Every structure is written in C-alpha cells, then in structure tokens.
Amino acid sequence: MNLLIKSATILDPGSAFHQQIADIFIENGVISRIAENIEADAELIDGEGKYVSPGFFDLNCNIGELGLETKENMHSGTRAAAAGGFTGVALMPNTIPPVHSKAEIEYLLNRAKNNLVDVYPLGTISHKREGKDLAEMYDMYLSGAKAFTDGNRPVQDAGLMERALLYAQGFDAMVFSYPEDTAIAGKAKVNEGEMSTLLGMKGIPSLAEELMIARDLYLAEYTVSKIHFSTISTARSVELIREAKRKGLEVTCDVAAHHLVLTDEALLGFDSMYKVKPPLRTKDDVAALIKGLKDGTIDAIVTQHTPHEVEFKDVEFEVAEYGITGFQTALPLALRSGLPVELLVDKLAINPREILGVNVPVIAEEEMANLVLFDTDAEWEYNGKNNQSKSINSPFIGQSLKGKVLLTYNNQQIFK
C-alpha cells in the first residue's frame, strides 16, 4: 500500500529534512520521495500542523508471553505498542518461565515475526532470575538478545553483578540494572516521606534506589564496563548518574513516563491503579527527573508497560500488584511534563535504539519507512474502546489526554 503524508513537520535529527514541513511519499514500504509538494496515487494522510518522527522505541515493557498470556499476548501487546507510536520494544524477561536461555529468546523472536513492531527480547542476568548463578548470556546473545537484566528483580549480589558486567564485555552486550536494595526497601509499598506517614503506610526510602545505583556505578568503573539503569525515580539518583557521566563512565539511564507527571499525592485515595515500582515520589523528585532529561543526564523515556488482570489490581492497595499499562499514554504524559517535542523525539525514538545498539531509522529518501505521525495538540479520551491492551490497569482510563498518535508505520504495515 502506498501512502502520502501531506505537509507534516519532520522531526529527525539524523535527517536532512529535520524541522522542515514536507510531503512524504511511501511506496512499497520505502520512502521514495520527500518534497514540498508531491502528487501521487496513494492513500492521503493530512499531516498539516502535525509531526512525523522515527517510530518510538520502548526499552522497558512487559507483554506476558511466555506464560502470562492472560495479562497480555504478543498480538495485543504489539497492537497497544503500535497505537502508542512504538515501532520497536525491548521485552523484559519477567515471564514464567523467565527468558533465561536461548530457547525463550528464539521462541519470542519467532512469535514476533512479520509484525509491525520490532521485538527485542531481553535475557536474564541470572538463571531463573534467582540472583545466584549467571544465566546462559552468550547463548542468548547469539540467538538475538541485545541486553541482559533480571527485570523487576534487582541483582542483590554484588559479586554476581560484577561477573555479569565482565562477562558481557566479551561480546559487547549491555547490562541493565534495576536499582533497588531489597534489604532496605523491605516489603514497603510506597515512597517514604510525608505522604506515607499521612497514609499510615510503611515507606520505601529513596536510599534503597540510590545505594544500588552507587554500588553498580562503582562496579562499572572497576570493571570498565557500560551499564544502563532502568526507571530511576529520585533526585539523588539523577545527581549520582550526572556525576558519573562527568567522570566519563559509560552509563545511561531511563525514566518511566508516569514518574514525570505523578507524585505520591496521587495515593491519597488508596487507588491501586497508582501502585507502581519504583513508587511514585515527591514533587522535588519529579522536577529533578525533568531537569535530568533536559540536560542529558537521563537518556530515555520508557513506558514500563505492565498489564494485569482485573483481580490483581481491583483489590486493597496493600495486596495489589505493581504496575500500569503504558504504551498508549506515553506520548501524552511525556508532553504533559512540559518537555519540548524535539527533545521527546530524542528520548522516545533515537536514544533508546542507540542504547540497545539497534539500527536507528532515518526519515530520508530510499530509506525503509519506520515512522510515527502525531499531533501534540489533539485531545482524546483513553477508554475501553480505544484501549488495545488486554488489560485496563491504568489510572488514565476515562481521562482526557492531550497528544495523540495518528499513524504508526513500519515493516510495510500501518496502524491508525
């Protein structure tokens, strides 16, 4: 199917047409022409006042396969991703069984064939995510794993993390750290502070995150390794990573979109839809995260898409599972943070791919079309009808959001 996008503003720092208003003609999956005015026999898409950028890429999401398909499967998960403008996703290995051998990597890659969304399964650092022995990292790498993480379980053993960093060096793979010291976090459910005291709930101190970041930065410096921190959430975490970058360490990090707009004040109603991990922090933390994105300390914005069946969220706050669905709300939340749209393209589309070491699409003639068309001013209601996920565990269901994905295109497939 041929497609002609008319009069859209192109946002792609790698393109000669960056920040220009132009028509884009896509023929058989290839951008055949970009010009001020194109006439062609194709489906017309009005792009006036709207933006085209490379398709977004998510470094942190959960789809459910393997073993948790009642929460989300490959079909529903990638449809939700496409609806949110994502043409590539890195899958966390938080599955049953975990993605800890080449068999799981190959299964997921096979399931994702011929999809609009490019899928990159991440392998575990430890066997069964138990934090005891290294998983088959090299075998998984040969089968297609680009990076390694124990997902939403921190690697508590410093020696194991050191060995993982050294081992991954041998084949230039990336290690993702989920920074939480479980001995300090304990079984608390919310951020430690004024709000936890008001709610009468035991809190997770910021120290639990910051101590693990400090430890892994030391390990990365000692082993001369690169490391990526997933979903940082505190002001001090930003400072630690900023300082490490100044020292020349190969460190990158990301932040979840919901941590840019929500604070622990959202928990006043004990609504389990706001129960996430890391927990929602304070206004000062949110301000520091936004500043970190602006000055380049934080490299990427992720969805941390975590679907759950209703029975895991529609319960008392204390026993509810962590996580919200995030694919379709990532752009509106990122825009709500007040960040300029050009910067958001870097954080949502360009930097995530560079971190993972995958090809960054370019909006240029003779390039394969991998792009998203979005309107930063369009208002829409996120509801059960337009929700593409199997799950509805989002606090934004029923809310009016500003910033809408109009079209996602990749692999000669279109979602709109």
Description:
Its EC number is 3.5.2.3. One of its GO terms (molecular function) is dihydroorotase activity. There is one protein chain. This protein has about 425 residues and is of the alpha/beta class. About 25% of the residues lie in helices and about 20% in strands. It has helices at about 75-85, 100-110, 135-145, 160-170, 180-185, 195-200, 205-225, 235-245, 285-295, 330-335, 340-355, and strands at about 5-10, 20-25, 30-35, 45, 50-55, 55-60, 85-90, 120, 145-150, 175, 190, 205, 225-230, 250-255, 300, 370-380, 400-410, 415. Strands 1, 2, 3, 4, 5, 16, 17 and 18 form an eight-stranded mixed sheet that branches. The protein has a five-stranded parallel sheet with strand order 9-10-13-14-15. A three-stranded parallel sheet has the order 6-7-8. Helix 2 packs parallel to helix 3. The longest helix is centred in the middle third of the chain and has 18 residues, at about 205-225.
